[in-house]
Amino acid sequence: MANKSLSNIIVLISGSGSNLQSIIDNADDIGVNIQSVISNKADAFGLQRAKNAGISTKVIEHMHFASRKDFDHALIRYINTLNPEIVVLAGFMRILSADFIAAFSTNTSKILNIHPALLPEYKGLNTHQRAIDAGDSEAGASVHFVTNELDSGEVILQKSVVIDPSDNADTLAKKVLKQEHILYPEAIKKVLQK
Ligand code: GRF
């Protein structure tokens, strides 16, 4: 067996964790060791996915903290104990503070996010409905570096899908999510190869 050194990453989730699952399934090919999966919600299904894969999990619930800053500092303290190369946001539904972003956007670590739109179009929420309402012929997903401005950091990779006349926000979300599962492993690999 090849003696390749793996890059340590952690994954932050809030929900289903299907992107997490894709990263778990492709970890060998990407060349990563997932040190921990962190959720801000105790009932996130992604925690079960991590446990099934034998990955350690940590719940840090934002509602138990008085402020965004306090929550972010609890996250920073925990993540600092792991010293990951990449902090992967995969359906993590919290906006992170400047302190968090500065802590892990360094020479030795980066923060990545996946957004279900072809950035710079449709930052924020309800991306699929907005693309349909605008009469767009295509939609997609982007993996980007996280900066202080929401969904605005440098795009690493994107994948697009065709919007069919029969699509609604749900069918489009499913089509895009399928592409996300291919896109995120590719984007992490690309960042690590730089
Ligand atoms: C994905 O569509 C992702 O782009 C968005 O939230 C969804 C998370 O899905 N940020 P999952 O939890 O990975 O299944």
From TrEMBL:
Catalytic residues (UniProt): 115 (proton donor)
Formyl transferase N-terminal domain residues: 8-188
This enzyme's EC code(s): 2.1.2.2
Residues noted as binding (6R)-10-formyltetrahydrofolate in the record, renumbered to the chain: 68, 93-96, 113
Catalytically driven reaction(s): N(1)-(5-phospho-beta-D-ribosyl)glycinamide + (6R)-10-formyltetrahydrofolate = N(2)-formyl-N(1)-(5-phospho-beta-D-ribosyl)glycinamide + (6S)-5,6,7,8-tetrahydrofolate + H(+)
The entry's keywords: Purine biosynthesis, Transferase
Sequence positions that bind N(1)-(5-phospho-beta-D-ribosyl)glycinamide: 17-19
InterPro entries per UniProt: Formyl_transf_N, Formyl_transf_N_sf, GART
One Pfam family cited in the UniProt record for this chain: Formyl_trans_N
Site (Raises pKa of active site His): 151
CDD domains linked: FMT_core_GART (cd08645)
PANTHER family linked to this entry: PHOSPHORIBOSYLGLYCINAMIDE FORMYLTRANSFERASE
Family named by the database record: Belongs to the GART family.
Function: Catalyzes the transfer of a formyl group from 10-formyltetrahydrofolate to 5-phospho-ribosyl-glycinamide (GAR), producing 5-phospho-ribosyl-N-formylglycinamide (FGAR) and tetrahydrofolate.
Name assigned to this protein: Phosphoribosylglycinamide formyltransferase
Species this protein is from: Bathymodiolus azoricus thioautotrophic gill symbiont
Gene designation per UniProt: purN
